[in-house]
Automatic annotation (TrEMBL):
InterPro entries on file: KsgA/Erm, rRNA_Ade_diMease-like_C, rRNA_Ade_Mease_Trfase_CS, rRNA_Ade_methylase_Trfase_N, rRNA_adenine_dimethylase, SAM-dependent_MTases_sf
Parts forming coiled coils: none
Main localization (coarse): cytoplasm
Residues the entry annotates as binding S-adenosyl-L-methionine: 30, 32, 57, 78, 103, 127
Gene: rsmA
Keyword entries, A-Z: Cytoplasm, Methyltransferase, RNA-binding, rRNA processing, S-adenosyl-L-methionine, Transferase
Enzyme Commission number(s) from the entry: 2.1.1.182
Catalytic activity: adenosine(1518)/adenosine(1519) in 16S rRNA + 4 S-adenosyl-L-methionine = N(6)-dimethyladenosine(1518)/N(6)-dimethyladenosine(1519) in 16S rRNA + 4 S-adenosyl-L-homocysteine + 4 H(+)
Ribosomal RNA adenine methylase transferase N-terminal domain span: 37-212
Family, similarity comment: Belongs to the class I-like SAM-binding methyltransferase superfamily. rRNA adenine N(6)-methyltransferase family. RsmA subfamily.
Superkingdom, natural source: Bacteria
Localization of this protein: Cytoplasm
Record's signal peptide: none
Name this polypeptide is given: Ribosomal RNA small subunit methyltransferase A
Length: 295
């Protein structure tokens, strides 16, 4: 198989000029131009010859070339039609790549994993478009896509939120969702000069290793995530008030207060102080008290 040719400024510019490519800001296009960062991502993703990889947003195919060399197969989903002829050119020497011209948020990825890997876990690797990082990650988890891991470039601040623990300013619904589904680990910080054009924010590569089983037992996942959202939507309010005011929930005041008391917490506790285990316990207590009305 051909060795990667992209991943440095000179060759990236040559491809962009050949096709008169115009960057689309609305698609979050910042292409990687640093081979060290690319090597780091591929190593962190632990790609082997048995792996089927989903790449979200291949751009001009830079990381796709690296992935194609390491994996059994790469499925690359790109929204920008203008990039398709470029990808067909830059990936012509690789016979294990399938390019799909689609909005990744509209693709049934679980079905794609079934078609491409017989429902066995895939690995997701991407330099993500930052404007839709959270819906992409949450979609992969919530739709129960069979996967071993997600290794992605995200905005530094989002990587911090994914890894944050209770009581910190970055802790929120995203931190809890990530911890329910996966073990997060920041692989590297990446400065703006590793991209073309340079983004205004710092970036980081984060690896989320999917748990086979969530670390807590939850009777009703949907209810737990509603409770989490309600707690952080009104961050400054007490947990009890946040839950009482939520449009997504309708528990009696006394039921909420009793469930919080059962956690061993005072009436003034805020949601941001609760661990995943405590949200699971709260959710299980409420599910029991009101079941099946709130299912
Ligand atoms: N992987 C390339 C690289 O590292 O050089 C490009 C990464 S760039 C940050 C993000 C890519 O995602 C762009 O190619 C962009 O067109 C694509 N993209 C943006 N929104 C998308 C969507 N909804 N579905 C699929 N691809 C999308």
């Amino acid at each position: 198989m051909k060795q990667p040719t992209l991943g440095n400024p000179k060759n990236t510019i040559a491809v962009l000029q050949k096709y008169n490519f115009v960057f689309q800001k609305k698609f979050g296009q910042n292409f990687l131009i640093d081979p060290h960062v690319l090597d780091k991502i591929i190593r962190a993703a632990q790609i082997g010859k048995d792996d089927v990889v989903l790449e979200i947003g291949p751009g001009i195919g830079t990381m796709t070339q690296y992935l194609a060399c390491a994996a059994k197969k790469v499925i690359a989903v790109e929204i920008d039609r203008a990039l398709i002829p470029i990808l067909e050119d830059t990936l012509s020497g690789y016979d294990n790549v399938r390019i799909i011209n689609e909005d990744v948020l509209k693709v049934d990825i679980a079905k794609l994993a079934e078609e491409e890997n017989g429902g066995n876990p895939i690995k997701v690797v991407a330099n993500l478009p930052y404007y839709i990082t959270t819906p992409i990650i949450m979609g992969l988890f919530e739709n129960h896509v069979p996967m071993k891991s997600i290794t992605v470039m995200v905005q530094r601040e989002v990587a911090d939120r994914m890894q944050a623990g209770p009581g910190t300013k970055d802790y929120g619904a995203l931190s809890l969702a990530v911890r329910y589904y996966a073990n997060p680990y920041i692989v590297a910080n990446v400065p703006p000069n590793c991209f073309m054009p340079r983004p205004k924010v710092g970036s980081a590569v984060i690896r989320l290793e999917r748990y086979e089983k969530p670390p807590v037992e939850v009777k009703d996942e949907k209810l737990m995530f509603r409770l989490i959202r309600a707690s952080f939507n009104q961050r400054r309010k007490t947990l009890a008030n946040g839950l009482k005011n939520s449009q997504e929930l309708d528990f009696e005041k006394e039921v909420i207060e009793e469930a919080i008391l059962q956690l061993g917490k005072g009436a003034s506790v805020r949601g941001e102080a609760l661990t995943l285990e405590q949200f699971a316990a709260l959710s299980n207590a409420l599910a029991e008290s009101a079941w099946p009305r709130h299912s």
